[in-house]
Amino acid sequence: MTASAKPRKLTRREALKIGGGALLGGSALLGAAVTGCGGGGDDGAGQTGQADRTTVRFMTAQTLEKHRSLEPLIAEFMEIHPGIRIEHIKVPWDQAHSKYLTAILGGAPPDVMTIPSWWVTEFRAMGALEDLGPWVRDWPHLQGYSEQVKRLTRATMAFDGDQVFGLPTEVAVRSMFYRTEWLDEHGLAPAETREEWRALLERITDPSRQRYGYALRGARGGFWSWWAIAQEFAGSNAWFDEDHRCIINSPDHVAGLSYWNDLYQDGLAPPDSLNWGFNELVQGFWSGLCGTMEQDPEVVRTCLEHGLDEDRLAITVMPAGPRARVALSDGGYTSMSSASPNKDEAWTFLGWLMAPEQRLRYCRDVNMIPPFASAMEDPAFGQGLYRSFVEMVTDPAILQNWYPNYLPEMGEFLEVRVTEEQQKMLLKRQSPRETLDRLADFMTRAQKKYVDRYGPDTPRPPA
Predict the structure, then answer these.
(1) Bridge-based pairing state of the strands 290-295 and 330-336
(2) Can you give the C-alpha Rg of the chain in angstroms?
(3) Which residues have CB under 8 Å from 9's CB, separation 6+?
(4) Using an 8 Å Cβ cutoff, are 67 and 37 in contact?
(5) Model-level pTM?
(6) CA atoms of 273 and 37, how far apart (whole Å)
(7) Which residues pair with 314 in a beta bridge?
């Protein structure tokens, strides 16, 4: 693949497979569901009719808080660079994958886009991402990322030799949230192990009072809840054996998924959490329906805005499983479209937005961990309710999660296959073993396709 590769037109059948059937509306679907900053006749900075300005279309798929935090940065950039107008296209996260694909396949991709790690190789395989190498060679910040972030960029294939297909936006990692008044009622403390956590959930669950121990995410994104537990039971972050067979259906992984499934089957999570995504599970916690959840640091702000404070909220490192304590850390990226007609202007914006000063301001505002080593030392990220998140990515005793994001099929795996299979399990239509067997079979086929094309020297989890 070269930096100049154009987006490959997929067949309708391929597009539906990748997008989980969500592309039927074509480009009209995108236009009906996204909102732009400075739409209508406004140029986004309170001026109109400046034909000499170059418009850079910036598509983001994030939470409302993150979208809100980008607005002053965009306004500041346009004030500094009066010749460039930024059109901010905000896509709801739950619909983001299909809408990005609609834009790319429809021939109207944004100039700059934020994407999660598991879309990088998928979009690269389509020829949709520009190699930033020619621009970052003169960018003074490329060597400033923390060691953990450098590992993530290599695993994601965002950094691939001298090629760069996206710059790190932030580091996401999960900790365990507790409603401390519920713990105090029973004389409990935050759990150190999964065994203790299960016992804690049993104590605080009381359906007669509409109280449940755990805010379970049974719909899209549930993988990021149970996958950490599966690795805790397995004591490994590996996905494949030496023969390139996927091993996520090992007996230990099955035991971990069974542990998570039992939380739902035994009534420790609300019955309708089968259909919960991100918004529902967070609301289930701050509203007082659920007593615990695992989430990223950005959710701290949401909890505080809904009446919780340091006296009613505790956040700790994740409980340890039988064989490991696992940090489910990952990173988001900001990339340039290979089809952008304004690549130099797009880089001017991208390089400014991803520089350490802007990253630190943004991450402070949304309570995410910044990607630069110097910024991670900022006191705002190492104390109070945020301390555990930094511990999760810096403690050498914690097993760091790793994904085979070099596989283009990783997007389909996470966006479509996992949700389908985990919901069958939660509905008792198949066992945890059958669930992981189906997922492992999909990943074995994806790995074989990669090995057949590129050879057996595939990326491996870092030691």
Answers:
(1) unpaired
(2) 22
(3) 105
(4) no
(5) 0.80
(6) 34
(7) 178
**Which amino acid, residue 249?**
N
56 close to 343: Cβ distance less than 8 angstroms: no
Length of the chain, in residues: 463
Q: Where do the H-state alpha helices sit in 81-222?
A: 96-105, 120-125, 133-136, 147-156, 180-185, 194-204
Q: What CA–CA distance (Å, rounded) separates 92 from 460?
A: 33
Here the tokens at position 233 are 């039971």
DSSP string, 425-460: HHTTSS-HHHHHHHHHHHHHHHHHHHHHHH-S----
Chain segment 242-278, per-residue pLDDT in tens? 999 999 999 999 999 999 999 999 999 999 999 999 9
Q: Token pair 């669930």 is at which residue?
A: 435
**Residues 163-215: pLDDT tens digits?**
999 999 998 899 999 999 999 999 999 999 999 999 999 999 999 999 999 99
Cβ count near 95 (within 10 Å): 16
Count Cβ atoms below 10 Å from residue 412 Cβ, excluding itself: 20
The end-to-end CA distance of the chain, in Å, is 29
Q: Is the dihedral of CA 281, 285, 288, 291 positive or negative?
A: positive
